[in-house]
Amino acid sequence: MQRTPAASAPGPQGRSRAGAPRPAAGPPLAERLSRWAPTLVLAALVLAFSLANPRFLELHNFSRISIAAVPALMVALGVTFIIIMGSIDLSMEGTVSATAVLFALAFKALGGSLLGWGWLAIALALLAGAAIGLVNGLVHVKLRIPTFMASLAIGFVAMGLSVVLTSGDIVRVDDDTFRALLFVRFADFPLMFYVALALVLVAWFIQRNTTLGRNFYAVGGGEDLAHASGLNVKRVRVLGFVLAGVFYAIGAIFAVARGGMAESLTGSNYMFLAITSVVVGGTSLMGGNGGVWNTVVGVLIVNVINNGMVVIGLPNYVQNGVLGVLVILAVVLSTNRRSSALVK
What we know:
The chain is 68% helix and 2% strand. By secondary structure, the chain is mostly helical. The longest helix is centred in the last third of the chain and has 27 residues, at 233-259.
């Protein structure tokens, strides 16, 4: 009679004689590559542009990239929380324009100096951003309107508000203390770069170490399951839009500091930059994964592409086409599309 192998014999993977389970395998190779793909894309872009023109690696050029990236980064951080919940926010252009105009007008009305009462304009802008986000969230959850439609409508309202407040004019902010965010430099990087870095850490702390941040992932991972576990999903969604509105207002303040003015067009193009950066960074539009650091990498990818094409001397019409192709390529490499349903 043929003998069967003993149960205690060691297996091919080194099982113990007592039949202990094998050590847990790490994440699949494809998952690990997907996780690091945005960083690899960023490194490849930096290498390609530096080979095309060595001036790309100059510290002063990296400083220019940071100046261009900071306002968009703040806006992208705000929409990151919305996308993690599996929602979308299209109100950022109107919110940025309205809060920038409100800030500039309040700043001038309060004396035009950050060392005086002008700092109150910052608080007013943040409150205005939170208020727009609150209305955004309430329209969505109370009227049961899809987030893309609710946010798009609120964005148009906010844009109209900025036009009414300015009558189409430009509101200039010339305070040297406030413009120090742009002109005061350490190691060739402007002060706004270091403030933005601190705010990135704040956003990461909210995402990683607060109940609200964990709830964003719970809602994005499955709203029905989150509701069944006792989570107030509507409240989480509203708070997500409020938080996003605050970050949009911060981006607006940085935009005013960079340009020295506010107008109804201050928020133009931030919708494309923010959502593209979040997705390129590896955060799924279906929600439940990604986060702050993914967005940071995504913002850097988009701004490195823009800056690199200027450095190597491509004309504008070519820049737009190349940007679109490279963004699609980055999305293909940095998102796990097999495990996600088709984005609606």
